[in-house]
Amino acid sequence: MGTKRQFRIWRGDEDGGDLQDYMVEVNEGEVVLDVIHRLQATDAPDLACRWNCKAGKCGSCSMEINGKPRLGCMTRMSTFEENETVTVAPLRTFPVIRDLVTDVSFNYEKARETPAFAPPADVPPGDYRMQQVDVERSQEFRKCIECFLCQNVCHVIRDHEENKPAFSGPRFFIRAAELDMHPLDTRTDRKEYAQAEMGLGYCNITKCCTEVCPEHIKITDNGIIPMKERAVDRRYDPLVWLGSKIFRRGETPQTSVTSARAAGPATPGPVGGSLHSHAGGSHDPQAEAQAQSGVNWHREVPHPTAPAVDERGKLPLTELTFDRAAAPSPFGDDVTFPLPPEHLNFAHPEQDKH
Amino acid sequence: MTTTTRIERHHYDVVVIGAGGAGLRAAIEARLAGKKTAIISKSLFGKAHTVMAEGGAAAAMGNVNPRDNWQVHYRDTMRGGKFLNNFRMAELHAKESPQRIWELETYGALFDRTKNGKISQRNFGGHEYPRLAHVGDRTGLELIRTLQQKIVSLQQEDKREFGSYDARIRVFSETTVTELLLDGDRVAGAFGYYRESGEFILFEAPAVVLATGGVGRSYKVTSNSWEYTGDGHALALRAGANLINMEFLQFHPTGMVWPPSVKGILVTESVRGDGGVLRNSEGKRFMFDYVPDVFRKQYAETEEEADRWYTDPDNNRRPPELLPRDEVARAINSEVKAGRGTPAGGVYLDIASRKSADEIRRRLPSMYHQFKELADVDITKEPMEVGPTCHYVMGGVEVEPDSGAAVGHVRGLFAAGEVSGGMHGSNRLGGNSLSDLLVFGKRAGGHAASYADSLPERPKVALPAVEAAVETALAPLQRDTGESPYTLQQDLQAVMGDLVGIIRREGELADALVRLAELRERVAKVSAAGGRRYNPGWHLALDLRNMLVVSECTAKAALERRESRGGHTREDHPAMDPQWRRVNLVCSLEGDSVNLARKPLPKMRPELIRLFDRAELAKYLTDEELTEFDALAEEAGN
């Protein structure tokens, strides 16, 4: 009936661990979570793994399968070759508790920091009236099953512990978007809040979150971009900008692209001090060469150019005075996406031991 | 031995065990009453089994059909439960559901809308009017998320007022309670462990609300998640409370049994309505052999006639695949037991050979996509393997209808949601569970809060009880000679699935009790490998004893009730018996063993019973009760 297949599963805890090999029976029509359950019932009774509904509805069994963030219950074994080794690792962005279980409390903290629905004071329960077309936009985001795969894959916090305090992540951008689009929500500053307090500006729309969403929510196109757009509309309204420019005429150049490092990023957050590695290559040729041949944990990676903010700490955005068309990257000018893979600080779990 | 002084201690006014719909609603109410409240969640916050509810939440708001009102809803609920429901619970439920749904909108819920902007309501089996508030097919998720976000918003208020999110309401996620602690007959607290670290935790609290859901994990084929191990049922029993109606479990006749990736997932009845037929392993369309006499006139006798019905229902009789759920389940069960089942223990549900691929995809889009995505089963090309799936337990903690307070030898214990019994009688209507959670969650939370207020002094947790709880919890880790908890669970599931399943017989039930007794001894010696940190084997070992005692209750009550009603079908007593309608079977613990007693059902108030036609009542009531009803009617007429 079943065939034996090769699995490599990360076992360990916060003190370290490694991938362990298992040969396990796989039957037709099974998913990765079934195989993990079989392992628990046979070779590895204490293998830690979260799961609940096993039907793609609760978002508990998030894991990284062959390097991709997936739900274990929705990853069919038939998608792998017969002789392919299936590697299962815990979510990388969150601290490991044990085996495949990670500490996802980051997400619950961010949820608590996101302002709640503000109901209209003068509408009693039962009198809420909304049109279907108006609720549908928010309903798309309320499909979210909180699997946190979008949070896990987001390169702003993946391997960037230092960005976590200032960055809420895609899950909570769509929560903000959902409330912003809620027909009866009375808070009017959802976008500004997302920009100022949730770190929306860190997002540079690589759409990784949308790609991994098991609910197929268009996180970027329908949630993040509209949130950014209106924030940009208000903040960078050309007339407002022109006004401020006229009154402060003659001060520092508005669009000095490379001088921004001293001004810091447009959004608050601890950036200074630590090395910033997703910016691209090291400027040291030797380290560069090493990076090409493997991971060098000690290579010096310089800070990227910070975003081109003006003296108000804001990105200039007008083609009238700026030195190029369209907006500057909030990540600075020397970062291009996608980043070259050899410049990502991907740590192979086996190497984590050292 | 672990010293009890090292155990983390918390003091709360109200502790809510369970973070599904009922638990969260109870916690909101307790917190709104100003009580310091803890929510204990076996999984992460927001992952509760409530998310699986698809259809909607039944509430007689009358948005789609203005003739709907609580009386109609009440009637539907009592009919669905075959008049075994606790009438007061059904009444409160029908009356209060609309407010509970509207309240969710003030928490931020976004239901689908009618044209004039109200909450849309859909039709569902057993409901006379369109009544289910819904959000596509993810209503349960909407409910959980809304309540979760309301709790967050209350925490934000507390943060502004007291400087801490956790000041008055705190969620203990991935925490399992293993014992309730008593001071005499009063609840004094709860003892459990953090799944993450394996460290113990002690809650001292005068009031505990159980909202732990159901018991489905004791069955081989179930749509329930791993958490459904009957924890609340067992905690209540051990604390001195009663369980009622434990013989009533809702099975769906066609759940997938293979492949494993979708085992337990329901296949909607419309597959059969659209032409799907059931075949055994010999390829025979067997349903024609199972048409009971009472249905003989309405159902086709030949395949040719049955097939004509789909296009010409006026001149042909219905195919027997469309018999009521329990008949279909009984037929599948018989085929499998006669050795004509599939290797996985089901039968084939074939629509692929009956309809074109295009038509299947058009008529059953979500079925097609679900099985394609989750299991790579193409229902347009191959038959499905289906069998009865355990879905919901009607039975549970016997409660005072108005307060949710557990009946029995314990005070300070409350229950709401699937863990409580009575509301749904012998069979639950679809859509009634989500509104049940809200109505009785709120009530239990509120009454737990006022109970905590009413106490002149707090009950005290006795140290020896804590030490005993620690010892019990650690025992499976310290043994290395016992069996694996996974083996034991499989064996338990086999006993319950094969012998106390959808169709029951006296001999099999008696056999099940013998086997459960054997299992009890084996479970007492279970050993779990590994350490205390996030060890699922250990967690299962601790859950097993709950599953076992609850299974014993179900088997005993099923053996005792010699009739068939709702979610309890006895092959040897196939008819409904009005005398049995007057009786609840009540389980309690005497020492270690389950004690079963009969208790008369509370009598419906005159103005409620008068909502029904005599002709309908005659199907359910005894002659004696009918005479009483006639007297009432006459009195009202005068």
UniProtKB/TrEMBL annotation, chain A:
UniProt-recorded Gene Ontology molecular function terms: 2 iron, 2 sulfur cluster binding; 4 iron, 4 sulfur cluster binding; electron transfer activity; metal ion binding; oxidoreductase activity
PROSITE patterns: 2FE2S_FER_1 (PS00197), 2FE2S_FER_2 (PS51085)
Listed Gene3D superfamilies: 3.10.20.30, Alpha-helical ferredoxin
Keywords assigned by UniProt, alphabetized: 2Fe-2S, 4Fe-4S, Iron, Iron-sulfur, Metal-binding, Oxidoreductase
Gene Ontology cellular component terms for the protein in this record: plasma membrane
GO biological process: one example: tricarboxylic acid cycle
Co-factor requirement: [3Fe-4S] cluster; [4Fe-4S] cluster; [2Fe-2S] cluster
Limits of the 2Fe-2S ferredoxin-type domain: 5-92
Entry keyword annotation includes Nucleotide-binding: no
Protein name per UniProt: Succinate dehydrogenase/fumarate reductase iron-sulfur subunit
InterPro entries: 2Fe-2S_ferredoxin-like_sf, 2Fe-2S_ferredoxin-type, 2Fe2S_fd_BS, 4Fe4S_Fe-S-bd, Beta-grasp_dom_sf, Helical_ferredxn, SDH/FRD_Iron-Sulfur, Succ_DH/fum_Rdtase_Fe-S
Biased composition (Low complexity): 273-283
Family: Belongs to the succinate dehydrogenase/fumarate reductase iron-sulfur protein family.
Pathway(s) it belongs to: Carbohydrate metabolism; tricarboxylic acid cycle
Location of region: Disordered: 251-294, 328-354
From TrEMBL, chain B:
Domain Fumarate reductase/succinate dehydrogenase flavoprotein-like C-terminal: 490-601
Keywords: FAD, Flavoprotein, Oxidoreductase
Binding site for FAD: 18-23, 41-56, 231, 418, 433-434
Gene Ontology MF terms in the entry: steroid dehydrogenase activity, acting on the CH-CH group of donors
Active-site residues (renumbered): R325 (proton acceptor)
FAD-dependent oxidoreductase 2 FAD-binding domain segment(s): 13-434
Listed cofactors: FAD
UniProt keyword annotation of Flavoprotein present: yes
Binding residue positions for substrate: H252, T268, H391, R428
Top-level taxonomic group: Bacteria
Listed name of the protein: Fumarate reductase/succinate dehydrogenase flavoprotein subunit
